[in-house]
Amino acid sequence: MSIYMLKRNCVKYVGVFFIITIILSTIFLLRRVDLQSEIKTEIFHITSTSVAVVEEHHEVIKYWFEAAERGELSKDSNTLVHIDGHADNGLVRYVKNFPDFRWPHKNELKYLMQQNDNFIMAAVTTGLIKRAIWIWPPWDWENHENSYVKTVTGIGWFMGKNKTEGLGRQHCMCAEQEGKNKCEHELQDDSNSKEDSMSLKDSRCHIKATYIWEEVLDSVALTKMKEGNWISKDEEIILDIDEDYFGCESGYDVLNKTGLVWKRVRILNWMLKDLICPMKTQHEVMGDQLMSSIIDITLQTCRYSNETDKCTRKDKKAVLTKFTKQSSKFIHNHKAMFCDGTKRKEHIKKLLQLITLHLASLNYMQLHTLRSVGFCMTTTPKTLNYQYQNDFQVCHGTNYPGNSVVNFHTPNPNELTTQMKKLKELVEPLFRPNRNIPKLVTVCRSMRDGYTPKYYFNDIERGIKQILADQILGSEPLTYDKDLLGGSVGWPDRHKKN
């Protein structure tokens, strides 16, 4: 073979080798991109966290159990980190069809949603939660003897024998106190006792589930978090934040400051309960709009010279005439929201006239404040055995004269900033690398029950969302529950136009 032919073949082989090298390199690079894409997708799946915003705390039940059904949470032995102004660890009531000490079917979740202070125990009975850590704020110190308490609590059942205990199967709980095992059960609503619970012989309580309950001051919780071994990296966590961690108020206080006595509010509530029977939150919205329109007409028609002025008799008649003309179409279009006994148009008009005259008898400042406080249901329609009758009133919540069992605390701006920083420091360690991060975060507004300070609502929720956004990887959107008071924007901004 000539030297020329040899060179020519060498060039040809080198060219083929070069082409093969390029093809193999391209395949490798493409495969590497695919692998990186797969890795990124897997990492996103691992680090993504769902966030649900609810109004009343027992509404988290739906989101907890749905997440477990989807495989985002384990169906047993989760750890609940509960950052809240209140313990919410009341004993759940035994009711007919209650999924007692087993995993509930979807249509049984309603039996776990009894009220806003016993949803944790409801979840414990199913096995979903094995450890619950309540991190409480410094303004609740007077309800605690120690900054940290840990107990192992058993939940079971006993057979009630009388009206106080309840007849038939009831729930009970036992825990060691002062070296002795002490058991108790919750009293029935019609027991005529001022106490919430009563002691029970431990031999009568048949324990079916146990869990660890911890109560810890937020600053102590921060110290424990820094130690690194308080919550192990393998624990599966549900993070639960109540906005009343920042403070707790009575919705009536702001009305009381205007001189509006409780008796006048009660009279208004009685009339409202006879008129509006909301079966869903849309009726709540419509009811608030109807009452606000009466107040608006009154404020526009009556001639006030100062904040304490009241409507004259002549102006009251003008208010009544204007509202009667404007309300006819509303009544016709929204008959479903009115109570059964008042569905006839004339009955509705008569009640509305009485309410209008009652409102027109208030002074300017009282009306202005009442419009801000608003009108709402007493609880969510999701609550077990929800009674839509007698469930619409001034939106003062559950804390009012003669009916309050919680501490009140209104934060100042500096305290709000301090507590928000503390919350950030409490949340951050739960999202550290190389640990099981929370797959689900639930945020409770606590506005309908009148707990969360309304004046600071926007600052509180904005701060919480920013803390979560700083920690959560991925683009999981917030889920706003359909029954939020005032919708996603919140109650204070419900009247603002977009």
Account of the protein in words:
By secondary structure, this protein is of the alpha/beta class. It contains 12 helices and 13 strands. It has helices spanning 3-47, 60-69, 119-126, 218-227, 253-256, 262-275, 281-301, 313-333, 345-360, 364-373, 413-427, 457-471; strands spanning 50-54, 78-83, 129-136, 148-162, 166-177, 180-186, 197-200, 206-217, 237-242, 375-377, 392-394, 440-444, 478-480. The strands form 2 sheets. It has an 11-stranded mixed beta sheet. A two-stranded antiparallel ribbon has the order 10-11. Helix 7 (281-301) runs antiparallel to helix 8 (313-333). The longest helix is centred in the N-terminal third of the chain and has 45 residues, at 3-47. It is globular. The chain starts with a helix and ends in an 18-residue tail after the last strand. 38% of the residues are buried.
Tally of strands:
13
Largest sheet: 11 strands, mixed
The rounded distance between the terminal residues' Cα atoms is 87 Å
Helix and strand pattern:
HEHEHEEEEEEHEHHHHHHEEHEHE
Mean pLDDT over the residues: 88
Radius of gyration: 30 Å
Strand proportion:
15-25%
Into which percent range does the helicity of residues fall?
A: 25-40%
> How are the strands of the largest sheet arranged?
7-6-5-4-8-3-2-9-12-1-13
Structural class: alpha/beta
Tell me the number of helical segments per DSSP (H or I, 4 or more residues long). 12
**What general form does the structure show?**
globular
Low-pLDDT stretches: 1-47
